[in-house]
Amino acid sequence: MPPFTCQILLVCSLCVMAAIDFRTYRLPNWFTLPLMGLGWIWHSVAGEGAGLAWSLTGTLISLLPLLWFHLRGKMGAGDVKLMGAVGAWLGGWTGLHVLVVSGLAGVLCDLGYRWRHSRSPRPSSLSNSDRLRGEHVETALTDPELRRRWIPFSIPIALGVLVLVLFPGLMREPPGRGPSAQAPLQENER
Q1: In this model, does residue 15 exceed pLDDT 60?
Q2: How far from 104 is each of 88, 127, 153, 168, CA to CA, in Å?
Q3: Quick count: other Cβ atoms within 10 Å of Cβ 161?
Q4: Is the pLDDT of residue 27 over 60?
Q5: Are 184 and 130 in contact (CB under 8 A)?
Q6: Which of 25, 29, 47, 153 has the fewest CB atoms below 10 angstroms from its CB?
Q7: For residues 151 and 156, which has the higher predicted lDDT (pLDDT)?
């Protein structure tokens, strides 16, 4: 993982992206793609960087699970690219942890929204969740009632990165890299 300063800059960038996404329901390419590219460059050039291959692998591992949702029309391409940028900076293993924490945060946001609006009278006979089911992102965002129901996934992504930066102990070691996988002591090290 990059040093703490880079992690904080990533969190700040993600918070800006979440604010843009919350306001416009769009993540502009002029922000997500350079953020991804800077992650690749930093890991290629910086002495503390893990290397370009590590960063590219992190990008692919982080965005591939979301690509399925995008291809089904359930998520915008900006969210996929933003998760790829997170992987470019933090690597694949941390990117998978961010996906898990972000998924949990997204579920909690959705449950909170449903609970908050469960007691309000519904203006139409068809509930928001029934109207949203089967809708593609682009279709849902053109309907003002459904748009208010849609939760931009950049917000849970930012929360996931923030949680893992503040509490790195929540992450598990990659398989094969735990204490039991360490090389045995050599004769001269004993």
Answers
A1: yes
A2: 22, 24, 11, 17
A3: 25
A4: yes
A5: no
A6: 47
A7: 156
Token readout for 72 is: 């089904």
* 139-146, long-range: CB < 8 A, 24+ apart: 141/25
Q: Is the pTM of this model over 0.70?
A: yes
SS (H, E, C) 8-66: HHHHHHHHHHHHHHHHHCCCCHHHHHHHHHHHHHHHHHCCCCCCHHHHHHHHHHHHHHH
Per the structure block, which two tokens stand in for 91?
């690597």
Per-residue pLDDT band for 119 (boundaries 50, 70, 90) equals low
The residue with tokens 């416009």 is 24
Length of the chain as a residue count: 190
Residue found under tokens 């919350």:
22
Quote the CA–CA distance of 142 and 147 in Å, as a whole number.
Answer: 7
Q: How far apart are CA 110 and CA 99, in angstroms?
A: 16
In the predicted model, what is the mean pLDDT of residues 182-189?
41
